[in-house]
Design brief:
Number of domains: 1
Shape: globular
Structural class: mainly beta
Number of strands: 22
Order of helices and strands: HEEEEEEEEEEHEEHEEEHEEEEEEE
Distance between the termini: 90 Å
Radius of gyration: 25 Å
Length: 315
Amino acid sequence: MKTKMGKWNSVVLVFLISLFAACHKDEPAGVGEAEIQITDAPCDDASVKSVFVTVTEVRVDGKAISGFTKQTIDLKAYQEGNVKSLGSTQLSSGVHSQITFVLDVDHDADGGAPGCYVQTIDNAKYKLGSSGNIEVVVAKAWNVAANTKSTIVADFDIRKSIKWSADNTIRYAFVSSSNLQASIRVVDKMKAGTVNGTYAEQSSSNADKIIVYAYKKGTFNASTETQAQSDDAIYFKNAVSSAEVKGVTSRHYSLAYLEAGDYELHFAAYSHDSNTGRFTFQSMLNAQTSVNGSVSDFISVSANATLAISSVISL
């Protein structure tokens, strides 16, 4: 049998629990710092000197981040793991699901025109888009932890985001809205790794350029990926990332910011078209990839780590 004092203690306990819960409910959520960076994948057009985009606003889950200033960026200057920081901001801790880049087609950060354009090697400028702002919305879940800094990298893939036209008055333009959004991938830097590879050929491919494409294991379809897809004529559309094989005697490549997981690497040979200045797809190359001396059909990328591999081409 409970005494009056026991009943009173129970009432006080319930009151204190309710008060504690109410106080915590009113407390603001924790905050963390997020730095947003931009990088790029290689272009298949030798005539392209630079690709400038003017970012006028960045939104997270529909809300403009504070402290951001309008910036004009040459995407071609940030490849093979090089990044351009757009700045840092404070965000509420927890999972965020969307990031939006607002591009000013008409004016750059200094007020000059245009804001988004391709500059060719003869210094001609080709405006990307007609006029106004373009909102590129990327759906991607990423986490911000309280009292810590996160780094989010947005990979603007030039070869997927810009299309070429035989019409000299247009020449270059952004791809369709859906393809433009699909051309940009967003990764949490701490959850991504890098692949550094060496490249050798048993006999010469006679290619003017070699590009390596990274695909999620089991997703590569040669009959589809080696054809121009959609009205924007995008080759290797479903590749996660790509890189150019560089060097003459010591040939190498680097695939940066791959999310942890299993990937297949596929090598393609390109020939240079002197009439258009573009590189056109020639053929796929048979590659044997080794990790620590063991041949494998796929590679496993770990978060925040660098994987060294070697690739040998047998024609």
